[in-house]
Fold this sequence. Notes:
The chain is an alpha/beta fold.
Amino acid sequence: MSEFDWQDYSQETQAIRAGHKRTHEDEHSIPIFATSSYVFDSAEQAALRFTGKAPGNIYSRFTNPTINAFQERLALMEKGERCLAFSSGMAAIMAVGMALLKAGDHVLCSRSVFGNTVLAFQNFFGKFGVTTDFVNLTDLSAWEAAIKPNTRFLFLETPSNPLIEIADIQALAEMAHRHGCLLVVDNCFCTPILQQPLALGADLVVQSATKFIDGHGRCVGGAVIGSEALIEKDIYPYLRTGGSCMSPFNAWVFLSGLETLGLRMKAHCDNAFALAQWLEAQPSVAKVHYPGLVSHAQHELAKRQQSHFGAVVSFELTGGKEQAWRLIDSTQMLSITANLGDVKTTITHPATTTHGRLSPEARAEAGIKDSLVRISVGLENIDDIKSDLRGL
Ligand SMILES: *Cc1c(COP(=O)(O)O)cnc(C)c1O
């Protein structure tokens, strides 16, 4: 079953079986192809491969069987035609910019994106004559008003970090296309298990495989998924020249991550939902940000757009920064780290870590209070997670 069409199979089956082209050794599990280059049968075959007229591997900067397997599997799971793997989530985001942007172009980006994504557009693409404006994620009229004739793409994450706000992907895709631009969605928080932006009209999805796809905090990697046309014409030539490729070892780790991603995401979401409900009932908690709660402003949209509500919960305490730090320091089991998407539950204070480089005014504008705590809910027993927060 080497050249098999997995398109018609369900996502659970694709996650486990798609992508593996079994070799003459009849292996059951996908091997790690630790090779930088490949040999050709003849000078003519080498020439044909270099011109793209014959299929086959040339060099692992742009093709490798282990990485190909990961790409094929993730493309199917995201409902995209093609996927390319990168050395990190940031490398994937840089690839989208490098491939699609030129001097004079404009990017419209959600204000609530990963800090390095802001720096990528503002500081690095800014150096080459690309301008970027930032808008409020959930304000559709603000997006529409900020689109310019030279806007190349809209860029967003949903749910956002750390306030877990939800953007209407379908509405923003329609808006982007009406104005002749593309929609790029960073699908790191949901993974293809909870949401498939390409099926809702987005043109490209970027992933940080470092988070839930690995799920165990071991490897750094990323991916870009989209149509054959966009990936083949724009992103692939950049990967080949830019060189920010994934390592075969990491691809092998991520392949097994994908196999359990569905089960893990469901368990993450069940724990997060239970924790959010419990937090909402605690007297020292002023507000809980979790789209599964009816108190969440985009609860209905989240229900429609996602299959579950996600693994990340944030909440504001009545006692300000002092209480937030005291709570974090009182935990025994939870890991105090800004990372997320791990089987281990992690806790962080966004205002002084992930969002600490913003000015107090910018933080206030983004709604990130000093009393805010963010938890990426892991797979430990929910009662142990709650009892570790007994300092509330
Ligand atoms: C971590 C993260 C990234 C960057 O991914 P790396 O693999 O760390 O480079 C991008 N977007 C989001 C939403 C993230 O959480």
